[in-house]
Specification:
- It is built from 10 helices and 11 strands.
- By secondary structure, it is α/β, with parallel strands linked by helices.
- Strand 1 and strand 2 form a beta hairpin.
């Protein structure tokens, strides 16, 4: 399976037509069609459903689109690392994170390093813990910021001097907004928006003292901004971390949980990872900033 052909496949998946993809790739339509048929024959799977107006992907095609995107991304990342002159501290650093105010600590480190090595570029990927760890494991990310607890067996980590606090995002005119904090029983009978990972990865389930199946969960989310729009429209109450949505001057407010529920945060990377010069410098500065190691 050639990288070139995977690029062709992704172009067709994106354009949803052979003619559009051929024009984009500067190929003839017969050449592109033959390459795609060869790819299907090599994999032994049908990848496309050819309709009268557009081409769509089969289930196998959808899987290949995901894998091909990851392969191309990793190839480009590797090529970028090898293009850097051996004596130069430059290149790309890829960082993944869920939504947390602690990203500012990483931003401070990046700014300090930027003054010393202005040719370092940073690429940020936002996603939940499952997204971030999957990309870490595949080599698509150099570092991730994870909320505790998480499976530490595969990673080295630096604990950040910050915690996030769980609470409830709600409309200011909702009945619970009059309270200074929210207790478990306050949420047993109200519509909830829940992080897709929170019930498994965090302590919310035990804090609520209820089986999740017994709660009125009307929606789940992986990033809270869109969930906040649903809260604003009165869909329900969102269980989320503090300082993610700026509620100043808006129709929304945040109330912390009681008893208080806090989580720690860590910068993580794969054990035995081989670093580029840029990522090695970044790690050195993280260690100096948060562990007191000398650079």
């Amino acid at each position: 399976m050639e990288v070139r052909v995977l690029r062709y496949f992704l172009a067709v998946a994106r354009e949803e037509s052979i003619s559009g993809a051929a024009e984009y790739l500067h190929l003839t339509q017969p050449t592109l069609s033959r390459q795609l048929m060869d790819l299907e024959a090599e994999l032994g799977k049908k990848l496309f459903v050819r309709g009268s107006r557009k081409i769509s992907l089969t289930e196998d095609g959808l899987l290949l689109r995901k894998r091909a995107g990851e392969i191309i991304e990793l190839v480009e990342k590797t090529e970028s690392e090898f293009r850097q002159p051996a004596e130069e501290i430059a290149g790309d650093i890829c960082i993944g994170s869920g939504e947390t105010d602690a990203v500012r600590l990483i931003a401070q480190t990046a700014k300090e390093l930027q003054a010393l090595y202005p040719q370092i570029r940073y690429h940020l990927h936002s996603g939940n813990a499952d997204d971030v760890t999957e990309r870490l494991d595949k080599g698509l990310l150099d570092f991730g910021i994870l909320i505790e607890p998480f499976d530490m067996k595969k990673y080295d980590c630096i604990k950040l001097p910050a915690t996030d606090t769980w609470g409830v995002l709600m409309r200011r005119d909702s009945p619970l907004a009059a309270r200074e904090s929210i207790r478990p029983e306050d949420l047993w009978e109200v519509p909830l928006l829940i992080s897709r990972q929170s019930m498994v990865k965090n302590d919310l389930a035990s804090w609520l003292r209820r089986d999740p199946e017994s709660l009125d969960i009307v929606a789940t989310y992986n990033l809270v901004y869109n969930a906040s729009r649903m809260v604003a429209e009165g869909v329900g109450y969102a269980l989320t971390l503090d300082r993610l949505i700026n509620t100043s001057g808006s129709s929304l407010c945040f109330r912390p949980l009681e008893p208080r529920l806090e989580v720690g945060l860590d910068v993580v990377w794969k054990k035995y990872q081989v670093f580029s010069k840029a990522t090695e410098k970044f790690l050195e500065h993280l260690q100096a900033k948060f562990l007191g190691n000398r650079v």
